Records
---
Amino acid sequence: MTLSTEATTAEYADRALAGGIKPRRWGSWYIAEHRFRGMRAYYQTILATSIGNPLVYLFALGVGLAALVPQGIPNGSGTISYLAFVAPALLATAAVTVAAEESTYPYMMGFKWNPIFFAMNAAPISGNQIANGMIISIVGRILPTTAIYFVVMVLFGAVPSSLGVLGILTATLTGLAISVIISMYTAGIEEDKGQMAMIMRFGITPMFLFSGTFFPLASLPWFLQWIGWISPLWHGTELGRVLSYGYPEPAWLTAVHVVYLVGLSVLGWMLTQRVISKRLNK
């Protein structure tokens, strides 16, 4: 090998290493951008559900079901309207629904149907970055969805306190906690045998019904209340109620809600990184 050839090879090596600097530094955001671009394929559905769902649910519950509960819901020494009671729960549920949608089939697509994750990993992008990017994109869809939902809540007069706007953040945190738990599972699925449908039917739907969404958790029989205690949706709903209309509960319990959701999010995020990295490195 001549001296000039060695110099050329070294130049190519330097260029290759230099080309990998940005992906190694910003890879997580590249993956998130990829997902956002992918969402453009169904942006009409995203817009329709983001605006239509709060309108339908709040109208049905605020004008329909609330008429059957004219006395309202006990709230400390007074009462609160049924619409104000149920609205924070619906906000958190909207975040959970989006989280479930974006944490199931997109992983199956990335690993199985259109295995783009393997191609990404062949570039200087790690499994952890792929996990980060997916989760960032999910949060990026939950946040505007809950913001739109909150605006509709305000229009319906379902947010008595100005602190209720913080419910957007607590609902997003609830969605994140659910998202990373589901992602941890779906990232490891190698064959689609209906697991995604089972997550919705036997995971999301029961959680929606038994997390104090439509009635206080204490109204449930004692042997069913544990479902709410372990449900991120119940913790997110209670936080939303504290912020939205000053739901009276001990400060330590409010702290438990926050710690529980943050703890689940961090743990689930780390485990999702591990599952994706392990699968890519097989």
---
Amino acid sequence: MSHIVIIGAGECGARAAFALRERNFEGQITLVGAEEHLPYERPPLSKDALLNGLEPKLVSDAARYADAGIDVLTGLSVESIDPAGKTARLSDGQILAYDRLLLTTGARPRPFPGLSGANHRIRTLRTHGDAVAIRASLQPGAHLAIIGGGFIGLELAATARKLGAKVTLLEGLPRILSRGVPEEIAAVVAARHQAEGVGILCGVKIQSLDESRDDAKVLLEDGRVIAADLIVVGIGAIPNVELARDAGLAIDNGIAVDEHLQTSAPDIFAAGDCCSFPLTHYDGRRVRLEAWRNAQDQGTLAAANLLGAAEAVSAVPWFWSDQYDLTLQIAGLADGATQAVWRHVAEDAVILFHLDADGRLIAASGIGPGNSVARDIRLAEMMIAARVRPDPVALAAPGTKLKTLLAA
């Protein structure tokens, strides 16, 4: 094998490229990305980078790619791939021949229904360019309306308040963080935002969004109109599967891969936000994860399997979010839980352990200031991976060392 091409120059693709070298692959590596920047981390876009107007936080600088012998092609998209001929056609007409191909094409923001074309006061947040454009509007006293009460919308709300902007957050469902976050934890987050002056409207139905030269408007079905200087839509993401689909690869809520991240084409693998995969810890349930650590883990795993290691996905899903002084961490997937056990880590920090009908720990959700829940969530990850059935009474007792429950 002499040439591995990676399409998608984000965290996952960059991690895979370096992991190939760490595994002593001596052939050519080409990393292709549509953005002009070298691969950068996306979590700061709604936090520090937005607050401080920083340049993107690069995964590595240009010198390190050069030292590793990784060719990085930025500002180029891939128009098509030919699995039979093992080639990829780039937007500048180049044709790259590969021995093995990795797709790390990521995801893009889900657009608001019916909204199309260029909008200057109605935006989404996915790239550094998006963050720069949003930052320019977040002056003290400006009014930001956020559509969507998920992680992106809430992190953006916290940052905007730090910048002195007025914030109104609109969520169509009865509460914020309804996807994967327990109601009790979501209530803590909502209360913190409200204490900071964020207006949260849940259960609202939006009829339309509109913008003019002077402002943007959210028209609700009940007749209310919310005028703002900027509207940011954060209603989820769509996996970028078009290249794979057009090449005839199997698609199932993302590019469908097996437990080794191999697609339906034998020499093509996929990893990160763009792919769905079977999760062993949950009896082979197929999932797609949009998470920074998953991108890192799968980049490393994909590199191993591109070289024939045949290692299966084994990581427990893990998510985190920073808002104000609070950090929220979730390990595992709580769908299917029948019992929640509270554990008060400190006066202002709590963890909910989620057990299924058989008493097996399948998820843990924690929130508190700083790193107050980090250690116990890490231990919960290990317990989930070990498929333990802990005693709920011991689990709830702050004096019980979670490490002692690993063998339950």
---
Amino acid sequence: MPDKVHPHPDRVTTAALMPALEIAAGEGLLEAASLDDMDEAAILPGALHAAVETLLSFGFTHLLDIGGTDHLPLTPRFEVSYHFAAIDPKRRDPKAPVSRFRLRVFPQDQDPVVPSLTKYWPSANWAEREVYDLFGVRFDGHPDLKRILMPDDWEGHPLRKDYPLRGTRRNFVPGGRVGPIPPTRD
């Protein structure tokens, strides 16, 4: 269990969020921090839906973005990060500050699987497909998990750090080949 998290002094309206998130995530909470730009929590995939429901109850109803990171050679290797915003629908000043929250999820290294958030936000569909396509993280419960950026017959996930820079189909010959460098003119 992580140390007690104290909310940032500028975020008194969401001061009860971090303790509620600690209770909701339970053993799935790895770390929580109140940073200068926003609060964040690091969790295991099993705690994602409980954490999201807690964030929804505190007004974080906007899913801004989903991103992936490959931390190879570190463990845990993969991270899926979610950014949320709590925008008051009654606010009149468009320049009024908006509370934001970052949720970092760390799936297993060998078979990275994270629950899908498409049942909460249909807009999560394409962002989750992008993370799947580029990093190979699968989203359990996604309605149509398939590639979105790479061709359907593409092999591998090109933003993984162990992905060959020139693709998987290039035949590399250590020491080089004898003869002209292709393309050549006859």
---
Amino acid sequence: MPLILDIALTHLRNRRRQTLVSILGVALGVGFFIAMAALMQGFQRYFIAKVIDVSPHIIVKDEYRSPPVQPLQRLFPDGAIALRGLKPKEELRGIRNAAAMVDALSRLPGVAVAPTLRGQVFLRYGSRDVSATLVGIEPERERRVTNLERDLVDGRLSALYSTANGIILGEGLADKLGIGLHDTLSVISPAGVILRMQVAGIFRTGITTLDNFEAYALLKKSQILQDRPNVINQIRLRLRDVGQARRLAATIESRYGYRSESWEETNKNVLGIFVIQNAVTYSSTGAILVVAAFGIFNIISTVIHEKTRDIAILKSIGLAEGDIRRIFLLEGLAVGVVGTLLGWLLGYGLTLLLSTIHFTLEGFIKSEGFVLYYSFTHYLIAGAFALVAATLAAYLPARKAARLNPVDIIRGGA
């Protein structure tokens, strides 16, 4: 074994308790980082996969991102006179020239398009009234834009054609009504239209807002209920390359003027929470590693203080400043390496332990336990951070030790 390494390990063995505490500090930081990263990223990736899988990638709505400019402002943008209290011109809601727009979007390569009419309704079954969002769809187009057909746990999507006034309910919605397949309920719209509809299917996506509040019917039936014949208020798109959603949404909005939201914009509130979650995770685990780094700094500083005369002797027999610095850097690195290896084992064990915990979670999405994401990258990041922290913690006292003058030490001046 090289002399420098032998000296470094001897110093650590002589201070076993402090060395063990520092190693445990590094191991805890690395282990908790791996477990927390698997937990956070697992949930985030599961949510994003669900959103991308279940929902359309772009939604074109019958609204504008900014209120339309009034004629006076358009004609005299810098005029000295301003009119206030103007009511905007009332317009019928709905996408104008929707058929041509759907046809044009359908011609884009790698894009599937489905027109829909969304509206609020009351569902009445016996004495129970539940509000819901009724989505009017064309099943042939819908199965290319969403996975509604795959998410059906009861019934068939094509039953909307064969069932008189058929309706498909989310599982949570059906539970609230206490209704099952082939049962009949009343659907009441704000326009005052009432239809008796038969349950043709029940779906479960795993996304709470969809399962608890959405229902589907044929587009024509929805238009009758909303008293809006031949009107659609949304065009939904699914892309072969989901990474192009933001760019294509901006292109559609600039071309047609209607607000076009990519799936990132629609879910930006939840994605923003994920950023905060990541910041909390990295901050907390980083704090553990910083505390461990202070432990390493304390060990090496104490060793240097106790071994001052030994350092003088080592320099007297020919060891250069670089050799002295390497001795103490090796001590910090040794603590970091051992702590990292133990931390990897701890992180793997914690991740396995979390995977065995089962419970029912119902928030943004439904889950039967923690959703974990195993990645070797987490181990590399945690290990690299721990080694850098350990090396930096050892560098300052090592540099001080290397600068000690052996003559001053022997004379008692240091």
